[in-house]
Amino acid sequence: MKPSILHVSQGNTLPQRFRTGVSLHSHTLHSKESLNFINHASQHSALLRTVLRHGEARYRKLHGKELDLKRGWWTPPLAPLDALRVESSQIESMGLGPLVSLSDHDDIEAGMSLQALDASRTVPISVEWTVPFGTTFFHIGVHNILPMHARMVMQCLEAFTAQPDPANLGTIFSDLHSHPATLIIFNHPLWDEKGIGAALHRETVLDFLRQHQEFIHAFELNGLRPWHENDLAIQLAAQWNKPVISGGDRHAVEPNAILNATNAGTFAEFVEEVREDRHSEVLVMQHYHEGHVSRIFHNMLDVFRTYDDHGRGWTEWGDRVFFTSETGEVRSLRQYWGENPPSAVAIFAGFMRLAGQLPGKGTLRAGAQVQRD
User: Fold this and answer.
1) pLDDT value of position 305
2) What count of other Cβ atoms lies within 10 Å of the Cβ of residue 68?
């Protein structure tokens, strides 16, 4: 199956048959994001290594034990309605009608809250489900869960993530697949997020697909993963006769860098196009090609920004980082440190905020301006 992929750049035109842009897989303040990325990032930054060492020493002094980053998480800055506006604005700038599906990690509150508003009642209820499998885990995008069943479905998915029973996984997938308007996507299938090694990760992916491929409708091209990995995902999709589909994976304020284009007027029509026709038209936006490392850095700058109108009042970055103590108490980083964080941490945060204010940083890029035929 040959994928249809259009790399959008300044001056490109979209065929007239496209009347809708689709944004899949982006996150809101309801997502809990792992802090393990700090360890990986510190391997490439002397400044970040210094910050991490000082933070660990401060925690050890205060609590008499080592800092376990697995007990912590951070949250993206945008509330659901703000995230919807960021994604919709980019699509509308291309002269297309927007269909936006927000999929937080193991949480459906973004879609549930948006459906309570008249202006966003048709936004699908979706989730990025963490599926433990073998020695690793996968992320599965489940889009457009039936509203009347959404709470029950999420309880089932959460229960499996907490206590995985391989014997139940096929039944769960079959139940999700039984609703024709629900779309099931294998997100960034070749990202070894657990760090078990590329070869073992790929073999585990193949084992997963041998058992459950009939319930996977498409493989994701991820807007925050490098193209060589996405290219391997294209090859994997061809091997299993599946379409590839967009997944921007926005965590901050940069709009999704990979979208879908369609002539579908509703999300259910788009799902039918992918599931039944196995057809997917992918748009790779201009800002995807700005450089992977540079884009990750600029997204980090957005994480450290001050958001005076934050949906929950978490204006500073320290308000949006949380730890669970061994007694089960959840506190933000700011609550741990008060107004006097370790000097190295304060210097690092100040540097990130200053870098975010430098001229030329287009955090609210709307991608390339695309003309219609």
Assistant:
1) 85
2) 12
Best CA proximity match to 245, nearest among 198, 288, 189: 189
Closest residue by Cα to residue 142 from 103, 115, 84, 188: 103
- The pLDDT of residue 91: 95
Rg (CA), the chain: 21
Contact 217, 183 (CB under 8 A): yes
Q: Where are the alpha helices (DSSP H) in 14-45?
A: 37-42
So where are the chain's domains?
A: 1-373
Residue 365: per-residue pLDDT: 40
Out of 3.40.50.720, 3.20.20.140, 2.40.30.10, 3.30.470.20, select the CATH number for domain 1-373. Answer: 3.20.20.140
Identify the segments of the chain with pLDDT beneath 50: 344, 361-373
Structural contact between residues 280 and 244, judged by C-beta atoms closer than 8 angstroms: yes
pLDDT for 367: 37
Counting other chains too, the contacts that 274-281 makes at CB distance below 8 Å and 24 or more residues apart are 274/183, 274/217, 274/218, 274/243, 274/245, 275/180, 275/183, 275/217, 278/1, 278/241, 278/242, 278/243, 279/4, 279/243, 280/3, 280/4, 280/218, 280/243, 280/244, 280/245, 280/246, 281/4, 281/6, 281/18
pLDDT value of position 351: 59
Phi, psi angles (nearest 5°) of residue 18: -80, 120
Determine the pLDDT at residue 99: 98
The DSSP annotation for 121-166 comes to TTPPP-EEEEEEETTEEEEEEEE---GGGHHHHHHHHHHHHHS--H
Upper half-sphere CA count for residue 88 (Cβ side, 13 Å)? 15
User: For 109-135, what is each residue's pLDDT tens digit?
Assistant: 999 999 999 999 999 999 999 999 999
With a CB cutoff of 8 Å and minimum separation 6, the contacts of 206 are: none
Where on the phi/psi map is residue 83: left (φ > 0), alpha (ψ -120 to 50), or beta?
alpha
Q: Are 192 and 201 in contact (CB under 8 A)?
A: yes
From 322, 341, 320, select the one nearest 330 (Cα to Cα).
322
Output the pLDDT for position 366.
37
Please list the residues that pair with 310 across neighbouring strands. Answer: none
d(CA 128, CA 217): 15
